[in-house]
């Protein structure tokens, strides 16, 4: 089945196929992002350096600004990024502990 862009979909089957394909791409991108968390855990000298609230705020604000630029609900994107950053911190802490 050919995956159509959102505006080209005319059936829910097409919409669902597009969403499922995009979700697979998003998970692949998240795998790339988490590979950076592995690198951070390897590079940081101490476990206490994993959580960086200033950087967390910056990352969330960057996502919020990009969402607003694209006409997306920036508060919802900021909430998603809050969860993503917290999951990334937990992942990095576990990676640090495995070192």
TrEMBL record:
All residue ranges annotated as the Chorismate mutase domain in the record: 6-96
Broad class of enzyme this protein falls into: isomerase
SUPFAM superfamilies: Chorismate mutase II
Gene Ontology MF, one: carbon-oxygen lyase activity
PROSITE patterns assigned to the protein according to its UniProt record, in alphabetical order: CHORISMATE_MUT_2 (PS51168)
BP GO annotations: chorismate metabolic process; salicylic acid biosynthetic process
Gene3D superfamilies: Chorismate mutase
Sites where the protein binds substrate: 16, 33, 44, 92
Protein's recorded name: chorismate mutase
Assigned keywords, A-Z: Isomerase, Lyase, Pyruvate
């Amino acid at each position: 089945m050919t995956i159509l862009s959102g505006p080209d979909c005319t059936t829910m089957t097409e919409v669902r196929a597009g969403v499922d394909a995009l979700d697979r791409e998003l998970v692949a991108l998240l795998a790339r992002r988490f590979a950076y968390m592995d690198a951070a855990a390897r590079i940081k000298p101490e476990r206490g350096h994993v959580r960086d609230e200033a950087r967390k705020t910056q990352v969330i604000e960057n996502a919020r600004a990009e969402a607003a630029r694209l006409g997306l609900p920036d508060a919802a994107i900021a909430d998603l990024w809050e969860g993503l950053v917290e999951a990334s911190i937990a992942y990095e802490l576990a990676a640090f502990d495995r070192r």
